[in-house]
Amino acid sequence: MTKKVQLYTDGASRGNPGNAAVAYLIVQDGRIIREHGEYIGLVTNNEAEYRAIIEGLKAAAQLGANEVEVFSDSQLVVRQMNGQYAVRAKGLIPLHQKAQEAVSMFSSVRFASVPREHPYIRMADQLANEALDGKTSSVQVEKKNLPGVGLRPIGIVRSAYKVQADAPRQGRLEPVESIIEIYPDYEAGLEGISAYSHLLILSWFDRGSRDTLSVERPEWGAPRGVFATRSPNRPNPIGLSLVDLLSIDSRVLRVRGLDALDGTPVLDIKPYSAAIDSPENDSLSDK
Q1: Is the distance from CB of 107 to CB of 66 less than 8 angstroms?
Q2: 227-265, pLDDT tens digit by residue?
Q3: Residues of the chain with CATH 3.30.420.10
Q4: Helix, strand or coil, per DSSP, at residue 163
Q5: Max Cα separation, the chain?
Q6: What is the DSSP string of 222-256?
Q7: CATH 3.30.420.10 assigned to 4-142
Q8: Tens of pLDDT along 200-230?
Q9: Phi, psi of 87 (to 5 degrees)
């Protein structure tokens, strides 16, 4: 039986050469089944990119995959693996050979370059940087997905907010416009959306901390559990934003009131209904 997976890899080096780490995510049927980040010592960035691919392919083989699609934001490495570029750097020749040996473990392997902004590449980059920050020898998580639970980003946010410090506490507090670009595979899902003036946007706050369970603010007087707040830092960093739909052009939505950072993956869009989403007896005292 064919077992096909997608492998997203990233290698990072601070100094080039410098302290480096590798990371990868293995995805099957839209679900992450393994993620891994590891500090590897002092190497160049391109060497780290190769080592990420090698380790990712080995892990895919251990999981029983026989067809792999490999995605990386390194055009150099992808083109070398595809035979478009020659490998001349002495430090890359043995790594290229090892990568070719890893490829031979599968019936089919395809390499493709993707933008750094791709959600899974961003996640791999975060894993690599976490490994670098802690210089951990290994950070690996096996994903035990609940049946039917798998997140597939449907689009991406284009925003003036680049880091968390740029964003307001709540998007509706600032009349800033953003763009939501829906991926082509999901364009048909936008049919009829222009009839609504307001939308609920669910997004994945990929740069938020997933270790936060308690939140403090000076005006509260005492800490609160994260589930009693709207903090972007939470075990599953899913953002929920009520936005104004200003215009729609094909699969590009122009909205106002979104506090997501540039490059944030969009998980879902739902129309806002005042009759359903605005309780008559709202006892909420804090925003």
Answers
A1: yes
A2: 998 888 888 889 999 999 999 998 899 999 998 888 888
A3: 4-142
A4: coil
A5: 70
A6: S-EEGGGS--S-SSS-EEEEEEEEEEEETTEEEEE
A7: yes
A8: 999 988 777 788 899 988 888 899 999 998 8
A9: -105, 110
